[in-house]
Each structure stands twice: as C-alpha cells, then as structure tokens.
Specification:
mainly alpha, three-stranded antiparallel β-sheet, two-stranded antiparallel ribbon, 11 helices, elongated
C-alpha cells in the first residue's frame, strides 16, 4: 500500500488523498485556465490594429486642422488681393477724372458744333440760282427724290446704269441712305452740285459756335465729374471696412470649424481612452490568469503530454514595446507597461501633416529611354559593324541593369507621397555607364581609327563611375544611424 502523504519528485508535499481533487477535475481546471488565457490573447491581438487606427486618427485630425488653417489663409489672401485691386481701380478712376472732364467737354462741344452745322445745312435749300446748270425742272426732280437741302445728300459717284446699259451714270448719295440717279444730271451738273454742298458746309463750319462750351454746359459737366469723384472716394473709404468685415467672417468660419474639430477630437480621444483602458484591464487579467496557471502547475505538477504545449503557449510573455507618441498607455504590473510594437510611430505635434518632398526631375526619362533602347539594339552593331558575341551580351546586360536601377530609384521619387530628389552620385554613375557603353561601341568600330578616343572615353567613364560610387557610399554613411 502506497502512502498518500509521501513527498513528490520536486520535493513539494502533495495534498492529502482524502481532500485532493481527481485527475479529471485537475485537467478540467487546467484546460479552463488555458482557454481563458487564449480568449484574452485573442482579444489583446486586436490592440495593434487599434493603436494603428488611433494613430491614423491623430494624423487625420492634424491634417484636418492644417487644412482648416490653409483654407483660412487662402481666404485672407483673397480678401487682401480683392481689396488691393479695388483700391487700385478706384484710385485710377479718381486720377482720370480730370482727363474725363476734358474729354466730355470736347465731346459736348463737338456735338454742339455738329448740331449747328446740321441745322445750317438743313436750312439751306437747293435753288436754280445757287447751282449753275440746274434749272427748276431738275430742282423738282431732286425734291421728288428727297433732296431739297444741303443736308439731304453728302456725295456723288459714277457707277453703272441701273439697267446695265448706257455706260456709267452719276448717283447722288443721300444722308439717310440709298442713292438716286436723276436723268439730266451728269458730270457737268453733278460737279457743281457737289461744289455747292461743300461751299455750304464750309460756311456752316465757319459760322458754328466758338470752340468753347457755354457756361451752363461747363457747369453741368463739372457737376457730373464732382458727383463721380464723391462716389469714388466713398467707395475707396468703404473698401477697408468691407475687407475687415470679410476678414471677421472668415475668422468666425475658421473658429467654428476648429470648434467642431475640437469637439470631434475630444469625443474620439475619450472613446480611444476607454478602449485602451479595456485593453489594459485585459492585460492585467491575463497576467493574473498566467499567475494562476503557474500556481496550478506548481501545485499539481505535470498532468499529461497533451497539455504541455498549450501550457507553454499560455505562459508566453506579453509583447513589450515603446509607447506610441501622443497615445498614453497605463502600466499593467509594476513598471512593465502593456504596449504593442508598431512600425509606424509618429508624433501628432512634430509631424502633423506629411509634406511631400521635391520630386525627381522628369529629365531622368532620357537616360532611361536610352538604356532601354541599348538593351534592345546593343552597342557596336549599327551600320556594317559586327560586334563580338561577348560584347553583344555584356552591353545588353549592362544597359538592362542600368535601366532597372534608374527605374527603381526614379519611379518612387516622382510620386506625391514618396517624392524626393535622386540620390547623390546617381548622375555621375549614369554618365559613367553611358560613356562606358560609348567606349565599347568605339572599340568595336572596325571602319574608323578611334582607338585613342575610345581610350580617353573609357578613362572618363571609369572616373565618373568612381565619383558617383563614392558619393553614393558617402551619402549612405552620413545618413546611417
């Protein structure tokens, strides 16, 4: 008979057999602890995604604030530009009022003189005594066609007859439009008719009012200009007040937008803090369950091979990592905070909005296209030249490698989010590869004596490659931590 109170292998004293639970109850309790730990681990596995999402929220909030500030700045800039344009236009109009007054006087005087001349012409009737060769019969014919005074016609011309026969005839052009031909008025009578009108017009211009406006007309124009000046000065004085009002409205809109953002940020931060506290509580409970599992294992020992792996997985340590900037995290046990390891660690205050860098220049497409073409056609194979097999293969491989390297460096650097200049020394290396391929083609040329030039080009290619490689290595050394 075995004594139930005998010592175990590890030196611990077992529970008396009268009160010790059965092996099945021990295994059931052990499995329950392991399943509880598994469930908590599955819940805690969601914390990294939550932390990344919360960091994205912080970045998004910072971008929204930057966008609101940018919109406010653009609004103020537009208000300032509009005010400057308005004030410049009003000042220009004010400075031009004197010239405008003189031009209005000139136009008014011209109108008065034209009206006086037209009245004189309309009162001068065409009579047989005024024009040589035109009798009363032709006077009646002209009156029948609406030509009674010097104001009824303006000129005479020679044109083809209405029926197309008889050659050219004389037409009299009326002021109101249209032209007429009077039988019996030809060249000998048309010229005196036109000279009569010109003489009447000259006498009317000579007898027109003097080249100065009457006092009442000058006073009327001066009143119009003064009223225009008062209106422009009033608008000029109103422009700063309107701009200040627009600035206040823009500032109020920005304040309201920032207030909405702040309210949303506070609510999101509160929910995130609640969720983070839940994760911290889960981590504390997980540590308690692990402690219970360890105590259970110390008390009852190993209960079977099937649970050994599950026990080891359940007793794994909780991952430890530095906290995310701007995201608080509460400790779980002692000085060991429960945090997650994330690759994207940003600071809301230092990196509020990711700004794009300087994009790589589009001119890098030229060497890329050249090396692509060289990959297809090789070097030293144009015309009657026949390159060796080794040169054909080597040149294509070098051109292909250069094309792939340039594409690898250039394509990410032209994108907005990953924009940056090409690495230092890339241009020297590209020039070196270009000169090297050129020298290889010159060496393969059998029809011209370019050996010395090919040697010089090859030396330059080597120097360019060395310089570019040195710059690349030096840059990598200075930027490495």
């Amino acid at each position: 008979m075995i004594d139930s109170t005998s010592a175990r292998r590890d030196g611990s004293t077992p529970v008396p057999s009268a009160t010790a639970p059965s092996p099945s109850a021990i295994r059931a309790e052990r499995r329950q602890l392991i399943e509880s730990i598994r469930a908590l681990r599955r819940l805690l596995d969601k914390r990294p995604a939550f932390e990344v999402s919360d960091q994205q929220r912080l970045n998004r909030e910072a971008r929204d604030r930057n966008r609101a500030e940018a919109v406010h700045g653009k609004a103020l800039q537009r208000i300032h530009e509009r005010q400057a344009r308005q004030e410049a236009s009003l000042n220009q109009q004010l400075n031009g009022l004197d010239g405008k007054r003189e031009s209005q006087k000139t136009r008014a005087l011209a109108v008065l003189r034209r009206e006086s001349i037209e009245r004189t012409l309309s009162r001068t009737y065409l009579t047989s005594s005024e024009v040589n060769g035109i009798g009363k019969g032709l006077i009646r014919d002209l009156a029948a066609h609406g030509i009674r005074t010097a104001a009824d016609f303006q000129r005479v011309t020679w044109e083809k007859a209405p029926n197309g026969k008889g050659g050219d005839v004389l037409y009299i052009h009326r002021i109101k439009g249209g032209k007429v031909h009077i039988n019996g008025i030809g060249q000998h009578r048309g010229r005196p008719l036109l000279e009569w009108r010109q003489s009447v017009l000259a006498r009317a211009e000579a007898r027109a009012p003097p080249r100065q406006l009457p006092p009442d007309e000058r006073h009327r124009i001066a009143e119009i200009i003064d009223a225009e000046r008062v209106r422009l000065r009033k608008e000029l004085a109103e422009a700063p007040r309107a701009a200040d009002k627009a600035r206040k409205e823009a500032t109020q809109l920005q304040t309201e937008a920032l207030s909405r953002l702040t309210t949303a940020e506070e609510e999101a931060s509160r929910l995130a803090a609640v969720r983070r506290a839940e994760f911290d509580a889960m981590a504390e409970k997980l540590l308690d369950l692990q402690a219970q599992l360890s105590a259970h294992m110390d008390t009852y020992g190993d209960i079977g091979r099937r649970l050994r792996r599950a026990q080891r997985r359940a007793l794994r340590l909780i991952p430890q990592a530095p906290p995310l900037s701007g995201i608080p995290s509460r400790g779980t046990a002692g000085d060991a905070p429960v945090q997650v390891s994330l690759t994207k660690v940003t600071d809301r205050t230092s990196v509020a909005h990711p700004a794009p860098g300087t994009r790589a220049h589009p001119a890098w497409l030229v060497p890329i296209l050249y090396f692509t073409l060289t990959t297809v056609v090789g070097v030293g194979e144009l015309g009657d030249n026949t390159a060796s097999l080794s040169l054909m293969i080597t040149s294509r491989l070098v051109a292909f490698a250069a094309t792939a390297e340039l594409l690898r460096l250039w394509v990410p650097r032209i994108r907005w989010r990953t924009a940056s200049p090409m690495p230092s020394g890339t241009g020297w290396q590209t020039s070196g590869v270009f000169l090297g391929l050129t020298a290889a083609g010159m060496f393969a040329d059998e029809h011209s004596d370019v050996f010395r030039a090919a040697c010089v080009v090859s030396v330059l290619a080597g120097l360019c490659l060395l310089a570019g490689t040195g710059l690349r290595i030096g840059k990598d050394t200075t930027t490495s931590p």
